[in-house]
Specification:
360 residues; mainly beta; 2 domains; six-stranded mixed sheet; six-stranded antiparallel sheet; 21 strands
Length: 360
């Protein structure tokens, strides 16, 4: 009887093992050869003012333990759908710049052509510039978020939760056809300080700090399922700004969120969506296998050579929002902020307010 029970319970286990076993033994073969260098293209042209930058480099060979090297002395041109060809300027560090006067136009298609110093020719697929993305709604709600920080004592990472406000944006597109875009979120904070001159009256300094905080949102590309996305999280207390690489001090409210929104065509949106999936993959057992990111660059002189990266053509929209949060009533006053000229990352002016200063 005991033998019968053992066999009866063993049969399902054997069947399950035979079913799942081969799946666990599948070998994933990446398409990209890791034993040779590959050209990496990182390029963006937009409807904004120039110059626009194309970066070229080569991947390192697996096992050599070196960083990728810049691809210097290449010839780059960009051709539009009307036949106009623009040459890029080599600044000598693997970066190539368009003329300052160059900007992309909505509805036009652009092709990047590269001839490396070794004589290999690469070409992008035509990239059409989609119309700019319009926002239909901006709102902020209270909540909490977390970040991982390194302990100064143990050196280990730990998770810390803090209160603040989530900023959400919605596009004007229909819910069944969400807009395709990516974004960068920047935060502007200001403060005043007093400079003691001894016998003379102290001087008042008007100071500011300006930082990109996109990586703190943990998603920078629109979702294909929704036209609503979280664009920023702003901590409630000034002490938590140090975790955003702001210096520790009291910052005067309100906060200003400045967004750069890049409209994407279907090909570039697919690239950024796959990039997000890879970066958000935590390596759990049922997570998808990390695969090579798609690229719109091909080698036309030697089809066996592979390229990595993206040549992107986008419309850019820059918008600023002044956010004042009433935590007691869970209400946010959000107004459009018009002072969108170039702002230095940080600075101070004595006895003079900068042109973008908020309040008295």
């Amino acid at each position: 009887m005991r033998s019968y029970l053992n066999i009866r319970y063993l049969i399902p286990v054997l069947l399950l093992t035979l079913t799942l076993g081969p799946g666990c033994q599948d070998i994933y073969e990446p398409d990209l050869r890791v034993d040779q260098e590959h050209l990496v293209v990182e390029g963006l042209i937009s409807t904004g003012s120039g110059p626009h930058t194309i970066r070229l480099s080569y991947t390192g060979v697996f096992g050599e333990g070196r960083h990728r090297r810049p691809a210097r002395n290449a010839n780059l041109t960009i051709a539009d759908s009307e036949g106009t060809v623009t040459e890029l300027w080599d600044i000598g560090t693997g970066e190539y710049h368009t003329p300052v006067s160059f900007s992309a136009r909505v509805g036009e298609s652009y092709v990047l052509h590269i001839v490396t110093s070794e004589g290999e020719e690469y070409r992008s697929s035509p990239q059409e510039v989609p119309p700019p993305v319009g926002l239909s709604k901006v709102e902020a709600v209270t909540g909490s978020d977390f970040q991982y920080f390194e302990s100064g004592v143990s050196g280990r990472l730990y998770q810390r939760e803090f209160a603040g406000k989530h900023l959400y944006i919605e596009t004007g597109n229909h819910e069944n056809d969400p807009a395709r875009f990516r974004f960068r979120t920047n935060l502007l904070l200001q403060y005043t300080s007093s400079v003691d001159l001894g016998s003379a009256p102290p001087l008042l300094e008007y100071c500011w700090q300006y930082r990109e905080i996109t990586n703190l949102v943990r998603r920078d590309v629109s979702s294909p399922e929704s036209n609503r996305i979280r664009a920023a999280f702003i901590p409630r207390h000034a002490e938590y700004m140090q975790f955003y690489n702001f210096p520790v001090r009291q910052y005067a409210s309100p906060r200003v969120v400045i967004m750069e929104i890049y409209s994407l065509n279907e090909e570039s949106h697919h690239f950024y969506q796959k990039k997000h999936e890879q970066l958000s993959n935590e390596g759990h057992i049922f997570d998808p296998i990390a695969a090579q990111l798609p690229s719109n660059i091909e080698c036309i002189s030697n089809p066996e050579l592979q390229a990595i990266g993206l040549f992107e053509a986008s419309s850019i929209t820059r918008q600023g929002f002044r956010v004042i949060m009433n935590y007691g009533e869970n209400h946010a006053e959000i107004t459009t902020w018009e002072e969108l000229e170039d702002i230095p990352r940080h600075g101070c002016l004595q006895e003079v307010k900068p042109p973008f200063w908020i309040g008295g």
